[in-house]
Each structure stands twice: as C-alpha cells, then as structure tokens.
Amino acid sequence: MFMCVYCQWITDVAHRIDYKDARGKQRTWETAERRTRPKGGDIDGVGIVAILEKSTGPEIVLQKQFRPPIDKVCIEVPAGLVDEGETAEQAAIRELKEETGYVAKVAETTPMMFNDPGFCNTNLRMIHVIIDMSLPENQDPKPQLEDDEFIEVFTTPLTSLWAECKRLEAGGYAIDARVGTLAEGIEIAKQFSLS
C-alpha cells in the first residue's frame, strides 16, 4: 500500500491494465486503484473551496500538512473521503468542520473530476462553500483532528492567491495541484478580464 500524492488516499499499487491503443497495438498500463470508495458510490472524496466572507474581501481557507510521499509540507484545500451513505456536500461540510472548525453553507458543486487519470482512478467533486464570519460558531473555530492528523489552517486573500503560492513554494512548501490550478485560474481570469 502507498499514498498517492495527488489523491492523498490509500490505494493499491500492483495493478496492470491490458488494453489496445488507438492503432490496435496491445499495451500494458501500470495503475493504482482506489480501494476505499463507499459501496454503491461513485465519488471517492471532496476538495473544499472554503471562502470566508470578510469586509476586506474574500479569503480562502488553506492548510499546511506534511505529506510523506513528497517529504514536504503541502499547501492544500481542506479535503477528505466521502463516507458510505453521505453526499459529497455532506462530506464537505463534515470535513471542513473537522479539519478547520468552520461551519459553512454549500454554494456550488463541480462535476466529477479525476485527480491523476494517467495513474489512478481516484475522483472527487470540488465543493464551494461560504463561511459566514458573523456567525458565533465561526468566531473562534476549533478543529477536531484525528490523532494522526497534523494540520495548520490559514487564510489568504483570493486576489493574491497566485502570489502567495509563489511565496510559499519559494519557502520550501509543496503546492497541491488543486490550490495551484485555482490560483492560476484566477490569474488567467484577471489577465483576460473574464468575469
């Protein structure tokens, strides 16, 4: 067993797929396969784009978490697995509360996305949530981490997420692809005046 860097969930390594390519040539592909998907479910996990509504502008909730496969502390969005009988939205609200202490409302659910389809079958939905900072429960949030979780929560303004990713990488942190892709998307939208 190993932990997939992008997936961050336990998967099985020893799996080969025999297939025919576009020209009909027989090939073998080495892959990892998710072993913890809920029975009857189609979604493995959730990534959470958690936005704090602040008078100074929107901020995103991020985490610092050591990841053994890359031997670095990684900058990530809150995330986790979907439990049996749970919707992706319910999982996101639960995981956000456990990992950050914040209580939020779901604003958007993305289509199913695949983390690293050239390597493993793990998928997720990104769940966008809004954290109302006027609520008493969000004034002094307390994470409810498991014994093997060591997560540092921080926020950064959405408008400077790209610059923050660059600063953190220069400081030795690894940037999770979900965070980096979101930051890059914001920069592209600014560059091409998309709204």
Summarize the structure.
One of its GO terms (biological process) is nucleoside phosphate metabolic process. The chain is α+β, with helices and mostly antiparallel strands.
What can you see in these coordinates?
With 195 residues, this protein is an alpha+beta fold. The chain has a single domain (2-191), classed as Nucleoside Triphosphate Pyrophosphohydrolase (Alpha-Beta Complex), CATH 3.90.79. It has 3 helices and 12 strands, in the order βββββββαββββαβα. The chain has helices at 88-100, 161-170, 177-191; strands spanning 2-3, 10-20, 26-34, 45-53, 59-67, 72-76, 79-81, 105-109, 113-114, 123-132, 151-157, 174-175. The strands form 2 sheets. Strands 4, 5, 6, 7, 8, 9, 10, 11 and 12 form a 9-stranded mixed sheet that branches. Strands 1-2-3 form a 3-stranded antiparallel sheet, with no helix packed on it. Strand 5 (59-67) and strand 6 form a beta hairpin. The radius of gyration is 18 Å and the shape is globular. Mean pLDDT is 89; it is low at 1-12.
Structural class, by secondary structure, is: alpha+beta
CATH class: Alpha Beta
Instruction: Specify the CATH homologous superfamily.
Output: Nucleoside Triphosphate Pyrophosphohydrolase
- Total number of helices: 3
Q: Would you report the number of β strands?
A: 12
What number of structural domains do the residues give? Answer: 1
Rounded mean pLDDT is: 89
Work out the radius of gyration.
18 Å
Tell me the overall shape. globular
Largest β sheet strand count, sense and barrel closure? 9 strands, mixed
Helix content: 10-25%
Distance between the termini: 44 Å
**Fraction in beta strands:** 35-45%
CATH topology: Nucleoside Triphosphate Pyrophosphohydrolase
Which architecture does the CATH hierarchy give at level 2? Alpha-Beta Complex
Q: What is the helix/strand order?
A: EEEEEEEHEEEEHEH
Stretches where pLDDT is under 50 for at least 5 consecutive residues are 1-12
